[in-house]
UniProtKB/TrEMBL annotation:
Highest taxon of source: Bacteria
Protein name: Secreted protein
Region (Disordered): 44-63
Length: 63
């Protein structure tokens, strides 16, 4: 095989592998329900803020 054929096959394999990674990530992202996403975001907010639960309560009042 010539070098350009090997390079072409490697490129095709790279594109296919990238597609697989993207599809897996998208499936994982879409697997969450809106309630699960909301719960996770509130937990992250509580961890990152110094106010703790008060910050989450104020976020609930200001949609």
């Amino acid at each position: 095989m010539r070098w350009w054929k090997v390079l072409g096959l490697a490129g095709v394999a790279g594109v296919a592998a990238t597609g697989v990674v993207i599809v897996r990530a998208e499936r994982r992202r879409q697997a969450y329900t809106p309630d699960e996403i909301r719960t996770r975001l509130r937990a992250r907010l509580a961890e990152s803020s110094e106010g703790g639960p008060e910050a989450v309560a104020s976020a609930d009042r200001n949609p």
